[in-house]
Amino acid sequence: MESYFELKKNGTTIQTEIIAGISSFLATAYIIVVNPSILSQAGMPFSGVLTATVLVSFFSSVMMGLYARNPILVAPGMGLNAFFTYSAVLGMGVSWQVALGAVFWSGIVFLILSVFNVRTLILRAIPRPLRFAIAAGIGLFITLIGFANAKFIVANPATIIGLGPMNPALLTFLAGLLLTAILLVKNVRGGMLIGIIFTTLAAYPLGRWWATDLDPLINFNGVFSAPDFSLLLQLDLVNSLKLSIVPVIFAFVFTDMFDSISTFVGLAEAANLMDEHGEPRNVKQALTTDAVATTLAGLVGSSPGTAYVESAVGIEAGGRTGLTAVVGGLLFLPFLFMAPLLSIIPAIATAPALVLVGAFMVRPVIKINWSELDEAIPAFLAMVLIPFTYSITQGIIWGFLSWTALKLVTGKRKEISLALWVIDFFAIMALIF
Fold first, then answer.
1. Which residue, 331, 322, 397, 316, is CA-closest to 142?
2. Which of 224, 299, 322, 350 has the fewest CB atoms within 10 Å, counting from its CB?
3. What is the pLDDT of residues 267-320, one digit of tens each?
């Protein structure tokens, strides 16, 4: 294990990697329930999607650890599942079987692009200031998700967003946030994980004392549930190749590709997971794993798989090798049979970890030359639009387009690579579609 994962070289230990894997899993485990709740609205059986979600998350995360040797979990992507349900199935009237076929074919396109290094070339075409900005933007995005999960930040018609009402649940979140921050400042090993456990235990009495919806250790729906393989191989491979379905496949390809690329770039820049050439470590293998995850998703009955930004929780906990992803991936497997147990961990328990992850992910912004406005403005737009649009893809699209436009008008056309021109074209196509 030491030689395969090069633990000493990466300055980590088996114990640290296990703690990091558990931390990443706890921050990501919500997808096991959330993904079925979204896809079931497309007419798919909840239990079948749950089983598919666990299979994709387990296999893809373990593959990321063993093959790409990166501490990044892979699971069905948020946003992609919403597009699957609300745009493709409910919006365009495509059957979920055909939509699964579109997921499969988009995975095949990913795989071809990855094998022939096209996706790697696209990654390397991203200007370094935009890479730093994407890392910071993802950090802000994760922080926003954490605050929203805790209902610390809520929708407000008058001010767009605002502070949520102070109540026992919010006070519990703040206590968990403070404890986790103290543990991190004092460099306590497993601080993120301890914070999650503390907040979960602190949430226990709320349901008894204040009759809130946070009573995770008593009112959960049993322990065991049998896996449902009814969606296995239910995709429609023939009708999903019709011309009318091409926009759906393109949307899956573009969104998943730039979500995964920007996630790899952001996590690598923030955690210094770089190779000797200054590129994200084992990027070809990582992107190939992402492609396999999407292909597998179509076969077993889920929306596309993608690298998870919540992996930053495990990385901040010290995860530096593929062992983190292997541990996190293995933890998905028992939930083929024990999915109801996930109700033990409320959203406010993982929220402090998500909020604090942003503190280390914004570090790369100091590498941006803010005095060069033709670089600073695109970087700024990419950074702020990721959380403001609630979309990594939208942030990176407008970062690319503004970079190209400003370089053109300032007479620096040579700084726009051919690959970036191609990216810009597909970015415009994505906006049109």
1. 316
2. 224
3. 887 677 877 777 778 888 888 898 899 999 999 999 888 888 788 888 888 888
Coil, strand or helix: which one is 316? helix
Backbone angles phi, psi at 313, to 5 degrees: -65, -45
Q: What is the maximum span of the chain, computed from C-alpha positions, in angstroms?
A: 67
**Which amino acid is present at 350?**
T
Cα separation, 303 vs 252, in Å, equals: 9
DSSP state letter for 416: S
Mean pLDDT of all residues belonging to the chain: 84
- Do 68 and 289 touch, CB atoms closer than 8 A? yes
Rounded Cα distance, 153 and 145, in Å: 9
pLDDT at 62: 96
For every residue of 121-144, DSSP letters joined together read HHHHTS-HHHHHHHHHHHHHHHHH
Q: Which of 111, 46, 51 is closest to 85 using CA atoms? A: 46
Nearest to 79 by CA among 34, 25, 146: 34
pLDDT at position 340:
63
Give the DSSP letter string of 244-301: GGHHHHHHHHHHHHHHHHHHHHHHHHHHT-B-TTSSBTTHHHHHHHHHHHHHHHHHHT
What are the tokens at 273? 């997971």
Element (H, E) at 203: helix 191-203
